[in-house]
Amino acid sequence: MSTKPEKQELKLCQSEDLSGCTVSAQRVKALAGNPAGISKVDVANPYYKGKVVYQHGKLTITLTYVLTGNIARADAAIKNIKAMYAKANIVVNLAPNSSKFDIRIHGANLSELAQGVGLCDCKSALYIGGWAPHPQHVKWGNALLVNPHSPLRTWKMSDAHEFGHKLGLKHRDDNGLMDYPEPGKPDRRKFTPADRQRIIDLYK
Fold this sequence. Notes:
By secondary structure, the chain is an alpha/beta fold. The protein has one domain (4-203): 3-Layer(aba) Sandwich (Collagenase (Catalytic Domain)). The chain has 6 helices and 6 strands; from the N terminus they run ααββαββαββαα. Strands 1, 2, 3, 4, 5 and 6 form a 6-stranded mixed β-sheet that branches. β1 (52-55) and β2 (58-69) form a beta hairpin. α1 (4-14) runs parallel beside α4 (110-117) and α3 (71-87) crosses α5 (155-167). The termini are far apart. The model has no long low-confidence stretch (mean pLDDT 94).
């Protein structure tokens, strides 16, 4: 971290109570390039039923949204998701609706990420692109949290990955959308036809 705002953000996070944490800094390091839960079965988001449609060979996702937190980062996530899914021949229609929304795109601070994921160390939050809570999560159920402090070059794939989680996709070790990049190397993950098919299978 080099900028004054980032240092202030870390200091604020470190002042929060993380005593109930479950993920150590060592665990975060071990997960780099090694996604957990790769054998878990995909589970469709129940709130997206009827909003993810595959018809006549075309896959379309239509959701309403609201932006909260760091608005600039949240807005970037909207653009990144649309662009990355378009490359995979998936149309993502996202319409703003602050009173009735399907997804809340939240530009998160480090405290929110650390507490949400259960991190024991605020610095570990710097390496997390975002967090897609379970749809039934009491506070963040319909939210997708994105990290303003992660490297800019990682945002596009990271945002697409986290949106994949909101759709119900679980981690895989296949160099695809739901994999993790190898640490210290260029991100070679691709949004593959198999990833697209997994979404189709969830909502058909």
